[in-house]
């Protein structure tokens, strides 16, 4: 039989074959890719767990045999028994901590110990509660796992670790295993796809092409006037039903017109039902899309909140480090100063100068403590607080600064505003907000404080007539370490701390600002007790 490619391409057999072949090929390739990718992930996960278990084994051996590292040769022997160039565990290092100090003794390693150096960056891994792993490039040129595991103190978790274990796992062998699997898969895949094509061709030829050709030939004979033309399809499927239907129509030609109308009506009904199902499916899809958009928006908000919390934590760590580094020399200087003041042969002028030095050192210490208080998470000590008395007391504190900057402060509030809150945190909240308002009005201006009831709580508005905040900056003002003030004028923590205080009390805070028109800070404290005005 002469093969006609163009005619075949227009046939249903070709369309079904190409479509199903494409789908099966894509699925086969996708399955093969997924298998190889999962194989690689499993090998990486297994090698990582193997490295962690090796580190835990060394930790257990050290704690049971030599927790004080008195026999380093024994520890080195344990490391060499597990790690080596010809093993998956490429190298293991142990950094013993000296007793009652933050210093680290000479490292113990399965490799060349002289090449092992302790760096301050390794100190952060000493404070971990468990193992941590990362993929790195080894000195051999291969990828490998690097695992850090603190050696826990046998006295308990309250005591610092007695050392740190660092283990390297060479992935060269696992890469070879994965490469072999991938190679076998790539070699086998074309034959599998070819076999699918052949099987698909045979199945479509038997169950689709031959019955369709038989039916088509019978129709052509009937069209040419051969009344005895019948389709001989023996399959009990849809094509067999079509052939039987054709044979029935050919034998009952006189009633074909009525049956055709009935068939058309049936098709119309099916189309209407199908349209209704499509409309219902579209409505359901639109609802799911709206739900997905809501989830994406919530996820974005949660990511933003997490980022801000992380930045605030970093600011707290930096401030705590600064306070520690400054506090130690201050205590030393203060001790020597007290020794000098205790000398009896000092002149009055010298004692006066020592007194000035002592007062300034005390002042610096207070500044350091205030910095630490700013970064600590607020601890609520709730009690009934009169908001009016609180603001009146703070006005006496603000007045010299307000007068010096030419700022007028007025309050509009009901007579009795009682909140169940932490007084110190409320003071810090108002001080931070008023200081920001004063900084925004270098040439003087007005600050208006408005308090009015809202539900079961109070709504507070603090409005200034300052420079305002640009629209592109306004969404960032509550982020930790972000400030629009000149260098040396702000830390970027004030508004983030204010938001934390308000949220801790169960409220929310927001800003409304326009450049040249001033800024209004609005925050609510829901659920607070309120006396009748």
Question: Helices and strands in order, then pairings?
Answer:
Elements: H1 5-9, H2 12-65, H3 72-82, E1 89-96, E2 108-109, H4 123-126, E3 132-137, E4 143-151, E5 163-170, H5 172-223, H6 238-251, H7 256-341, H8 348-375, E6 383-386, H9 387-405, E7 407-412, E8 418-421, H10 423-439, E9 445-454, E10 457-464, H11 494-504, E11 509-514, E12 518-525
Parallel strand pairs: 7-9
Antiparallel strand pairs: 1-2, 1-5, 3-4, 4-5, 6-8, 9-10, 10-12, 11-12
Helix pairs in contact: 2-3, 2-5, 5-6, 7-8, 9-10, 10-11
Structural description of this entry:
The protein has 533 residues and is an alpha+beta fold. Among the domains are: 164 residues, Beta-Lactamase, CATH 3.30.450; 60 residues; 143 residues, Heat Shock Protein 90 (2-Layer Sandwich), CATH 3.30.565. The chain is 56% helix and 15% strand. A five-stranded antiparallel β-sheet has the order 2-1-5-4-3. Helix 2 packs antiparallel against helix 3. The termini are far apart.
SSE order: HHHEEHEEEHHHHEHEEHEEHEE
Calculate the mean pLDDT score and round it: 79
Please identify the top-level CATH class of the domain at 16-179: Alpha Beta
State the separation between the terminal residues, measured CA to CA: 103 Å
What is the structural class? alpha+beta
Proportion of residues in helical segments: 55-70%
Per CATH, the architecture of the domain at 16-179 is 2-Layer Sandwich
Largest sheet, in brief, is: 5 strands, antiparallel
> CATH topology of the domain at 16-179, what is it called?
Beta-Lactamase
Morphology: flat
> Strand order, biggest sheet?
2-1-5-4-3
Tally of helical runs: 11
Give the strand content.
5-15%
Radius of gyration: 40 Å
Give the full name of the CATH homologous superfamily of the domain at 16-179: PAS domain
Number of strands: 12
């Amino acid at each position: 039989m002469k093969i006609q490619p163009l005619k075949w391409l227009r046939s249903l057999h070709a369309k079904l074959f190409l479509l199903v072949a494409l789908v099966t090929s894509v699925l086969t390739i996708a399955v093969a890719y997924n298998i190889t990718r999962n194989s690689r992930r499993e090998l990486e996960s297994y090698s990582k767990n193997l490295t962690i278990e090796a580190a835990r084994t060394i930790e257990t051996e050290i704690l049971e045999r030599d927790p004080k590292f008195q026999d380093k040769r024994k520890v080195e022997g344990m490391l060499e028994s597990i790690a080596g160039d010809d093993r998956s565990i490429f190298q293991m290092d142990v950094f013993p901590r000296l007793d009652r100090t933050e210093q680290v003794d000479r490292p113990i390693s399965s490799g060349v110990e002289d090449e092992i150096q302790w760096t301050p960056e390794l100190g952060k891994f000493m404070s971990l509660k468990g193992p941590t792993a990362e993929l790195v490039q080894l000195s051999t040129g291969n990828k490998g796992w690097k695992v850090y595991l603190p050696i826990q103190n046998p006295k308990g978790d309250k005591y610092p670790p007695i050392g740190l274990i660092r283990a390297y796992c060479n992935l060269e062998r696992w890469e070879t295993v994965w490469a072999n699997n991938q190679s076998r898969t790539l070699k086998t895949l074309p034959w599998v796809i070819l076999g699918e094509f052949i099987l698909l061709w045979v199945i479509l030829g038997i169950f689709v092409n031959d019955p369709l050709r038989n039916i088509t030939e019978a129709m052509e004979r009937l069209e040419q006037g051969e009344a005895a033309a019948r389709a001989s399809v023996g399959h009990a499927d849809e094509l067999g039903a079509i052939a039987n239907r054709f044979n029935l129509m050919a034998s009952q030609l006189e009633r074909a017109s009525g049956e055709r109308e009935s068939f058309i009506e049936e098709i119309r009904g099916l189309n209407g039902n199908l349209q209704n199902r499509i409309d219902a499916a579209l409505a359901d899809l639109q609802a799911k899309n709206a739900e997905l958009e809501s989830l994406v928006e919530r996820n974005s908000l949660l990511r933003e909140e997490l980022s801000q919390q992380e930045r605030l934590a970093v600011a707290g760590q930096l401030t705590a480090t600064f306070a520690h580094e400054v506090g130690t020399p201050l205590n030393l200087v203060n001790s020597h100063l007290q020794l000098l003041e205790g000398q009896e042969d000092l002149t009055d002028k010298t004692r006066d100068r020592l007194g000035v030095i002592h007062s300034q050192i005390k002042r610096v210490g207070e500044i350091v403590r205030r910095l630490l208080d700013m970064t600590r998470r607020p601890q609520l000590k709730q009690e009934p607080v009169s908001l009016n008395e609180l603001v009146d007391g703070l006005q006496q504190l603000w007045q010299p600064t307000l007068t010096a900057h030419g700022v007028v402060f007025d309050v509009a509030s009901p007579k009795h505003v009682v909140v169940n809150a932490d007084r110190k945190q409320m003071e810090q909240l108002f001080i931070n907000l008023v200081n920001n308002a004063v900084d925004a009005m270098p040439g003087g201006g007005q600050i208006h404080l408005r308090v009015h009831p809202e539900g079961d709580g109070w709504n507070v508005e603090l409005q200034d007539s300052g420079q305002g905040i640009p629209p592109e900056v306004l969404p960032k003002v509550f982020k930790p370490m972000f400030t629009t003030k000149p260098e040396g004028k702000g830390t970027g923590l004030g508004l983030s701390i204010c938001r934390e205080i308000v949220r801790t009390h169960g409220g929310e805070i927001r800003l409304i600002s326009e450049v040249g028109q001033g800024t209004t800070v609005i925050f609510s404290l829901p659920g607070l007790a309120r006396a009748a005005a």
